[in-house]
Every structure is written in C-alpha cells, then in structure tokens.
Design goal:
Layout lengths: L2 H13 L6 E6 L2 E6 L6 E2 L3 E2 L1 H20 L6 E9 L9 E10 L3 E10 L7 E8 L7
Antiparallel strand pairs: 1-2, 2-6, 3-4, 5-8, 6-7, 7-8
Amino acid sequence: MSDKKEAIARFIQEEFPQTRVVVDAVWERSARVSQEVDESDLRPGGTVSGPTLMALADVALYVALLGEIGIVPLAVTTSLTINFLRKPEASKRIIGECRLMKVGKTLAVGEVSLFSEGLEEPVAHVVGTYSIPPASMR
C-alpha cells in the first residue's frame, strides 16, 4: 500500500466512519474505490439505489482530489451529475474509477465510472466539481 493511499484511507476512515467505501488505489489524478453491497443499499426491484451510487462516486472524487492536493478536509462538492446507464448487480461490489479532468486553484472537475464488479460496461457515469479552499484555510 502506498503511503499516499494509506494516509487518505486512514483520513476517510477517521473523519467519515459512517462510510463503507474502501480506498483501493490512488494514482496521479485518479483513484479507485469500492463498496460491498448489502440489503441497506437496495431499492425495490432488487437494484442498487441511486443514493448509494452517488455517495460512492462522491468519495471517489474526494479521494482522487486528496491524492492530488494533499489532505485538505475543507474541499467540498459543489456539483454532482449522474447518468444511470444500466441496472447494477445487487449481489456484486460496486467499483468507482475516478479521473480528474482539471485541477485548478479553486475548483477541480472529475469523472467517475461506476461498475458492478466483474462487468465491463459501466452502470453509471458521474461528473463532479469540488471547491478547493484557499491556502489560508487549509
């Protein structure tokens, strides 16, 4: 486990103990996260709920951003748009692969592809923007 990934995973676990998202990898301008799916994540019809998918994508963006700018707790989501593409598998882990498209001084924009583990086609595509606080607030 890389030091950067380890530090970010520890930060997420300590500051967001309610999340079940696991930090799998952190690379330059990108990250991969995952979450096991259980009954609490399902909606009628036996599919993974939208809020579960959106939360996973948001964490993926946050992890990729922290990997790029360091651990800056006050970086926050300013927008998140999701396109649901196909029904996720209710019995498979959800994997989020994030790529930051732009990291500026005050805003970062990234995209996340969400997959049911083992399937090639994404179940959702997400684009999000994060606000980066000024250096004086970090």
